[in-house]
Amino acid sequence: MNDLGMECFNLLLVPKGNEIEFDEDLLEVNGTNKLKFREVSNVISSLPLVKPYTPKDMSQGSNSKCYYFYTDNSCIIEIEINAGLVEESGGVEEISVRFAVTNPLDTFQKALQICENIAIKLNMQIIDMRLKAIVDLTNNLVLAKSKKGFEEKRARFYTMYNLPISTWVKPMHCGKALFDELRIQ
Q1: Contact, 130 vs 109, CB < 8 A?
Q2: Does pLDDT of 2 surpass 50?
Q3: Given this model, what pLDDT does residue 1 score?
Q4: At what angle do helices 107-122 and 140-160 cross, to 10 degrees?
Q5: Where are any strands of DSSP class E within 36-106?
Q6: pLDDT above 90: residue 172
Q7: Alpha helix positions (H), the chain
Q8: How confident is the prediction for the chain on average, in pLDDT?
Q9: What per-residue confidence (pLDDT) applies to 60?
Q10: Nearest CA-CA partner of 107 in 180, 10, 14
Q11: Which residue of 81, 96, 115, 176 has the smallest Cβ count within 10 Å?
């Protein structure tokens, strides 16, 4: 059984001015607003505690220039530009900010802060993929719903793998590495 995706919480940033539509489980972004790859990578790499990395389970065709991660030794937050594709001429349409649910609870707030920093510098809007909604950082109700969505996903993950929620909390990348670690528990 492949549960990839079950282990991570994902926020997406897209340029402001593009229309966002949700259809079932899909997100559609309509518009022509795109960002220059170099500008995006410069902003992301300038964030404190953010470094480039190459994911162990990076898909074929993806470019390692698109991957960064934040770590403060208590959590890991991944940042992926344009779903791993460098399109100098086409521009950047999205930035994914995600983290494994096994990271400590305060990782959610740190991920939102990273999103806010990027959104301000690049004029982007933040989307909670679980809520299927734009995250207004000034709206406490939306922020509370988003946090609750993370906590519910986290609880389901721990229940699915029959893990006591407080006994296996560690900074992990999303994907295969987390499941490999889980198998040896």
Answers
A1: no
A2: no
A3: 32
A4: 130
A5: 50-52, 67-71, 76-81, 95-100
A6: no
A7: 37-46, 107-122, 140-160, 176-183
A8: 88
A9: 81
A10: 10
A11: 176
Structure tokens at 106: 């305060």
At residue 3, the pLDDT reads: 43
Q: Where are the alpha helices (DSSP H) in 14-139?
A: 37-46, 107-122
- Among 81, 74, 91, residue whose Cα is nearest residue 55: 81
Nearest to 77 by CA among 176, 181, 179, 173: 173
Task: Give me the half-sphere count of Cα atoms (radius 13 Å) on the Cβ side of residue 82.
Answer: 22
Count the neighbouring beta carbons within 10 Å of the beta carbon of residue 37: 21
Task: List the domains of the chain with CATH numbers.
Answer: 8-183 (3.30.1400.10)
Amino acid identity of residue 176, one-letter, is K
C-beta of residue 101 within 8 angstroms of C-beta of residue 154: yes
Of residues 125, 130, 167, 122, the one with CA closest to residue 146: 130
CB neighbour class for 7 (10 Å; exposed up to 12, middle 13-18, buried from 19):
buried
Q: Between the CA atoms of 156, 173, 150 and 27, what dihedral angle is there, to the nearest 10 degrees?
A: -100
Decide if 85 contacts 66 (C-beta within 8 A).
Answer: yes
